[in-house]
Amino acid sequence: MKNKETPKTAEKSKPRGSVDLYAAQCGKCLKWRTIDTLEGYEEMRSRFLEDPFFCDKKPNVSCDDPADIEYDTTRTWVIDKPNIPKTPTGFRRELILRRDFSKLDAHYITPTGKRVRSRAEVAAFLKENPEYENVNLDHFNFTVPKVMEDTIPGSVKKKIKKNLESQMENVA
User: Fold this and answer.
1) Alpha helices, H only, 19-153
2) Rounded to an integer, what distance in angstroms lies between the CA atom of residue 49 and that of residue 46?
3) What is the Cα–Cα distance from 145 to 19, expressed in whole angstroms?
4) Which domain of life does the protein's organism represent (predicted)?
């Protein structure tokens, strides 16, 4: 019997709460456009203030076309800050959503597979690995996107409320 990927196994192949879709909002029509790759998204985000996103930056797309995706509650949305530098070649930036949906955590995976969670850890890694001496520490940014509260699933909101009420009872 061949191994089939089921929805459960597909979910396990990605880190819990990881970002699975990248989009940008057009500065003219305000429609959301998907960005095909993480690399394309990082390139656009790294120079967003100098070169804002417009629909016509995507091939064969204009403001007259329907949005690629609608801002709604079918997924949890997070809004990134502009001009975060592109991740250095060989490294990978990961954003992981906390179980309570309160925020994301940012970390980088080095070319050696080591996970670094702070600027100090990146600096130590670069110092310990002279082959990466040309990598600029300023290209590592741990700023995280804002979780849009209106898109957090209702079941999570109920759980958070229940936990807060329980904590308040224990204090009283």
Assistant:
1) 38-46, 119-128
2) 8
3) 11
4) Eukaryota
> Which domain range does residue 145 map to?
86-152
Distance, in Å, from the CA atom of 125 to the CA atom of 90, rounded to the nearest integer, reads 13
The pLDDT tens digits of the residues spanning 22-43 come to 999 999 999 999 999 999 999 9
- Three-class HEC string of 14-72: CCCCECCCEEEECCCCCCEEEECCHHHHHHHHHCCCCCCCCHHHCCCCCCCCCCCECCC
Instruction: Indicate the burial class of 71 (C-beta count within 10 angstroms; 0-12, 13-18, 19 or more).
Output: middle
* 145 and 98 within one domain: yes
Top-confidence residue, 162 or 1: 162
Structurally, the chain folds into a number of domains equal to 2
118: tokens are 């702070």
Cα atoms found within 13 Å of the Cα of residue 139, Cβ hemisphere only: 16
Residue whose structure tokens are 């995976």: 109
| One-letter amino acid for residue 156 of the chain | V
Whole-prediction pTM? 0.77
Q: How far apart are CA 67 and CA 34, in angstroms?
A: 9
* Integer angstrom CA distances of residue 128 from 11, 131, 140: 35, 9, 17
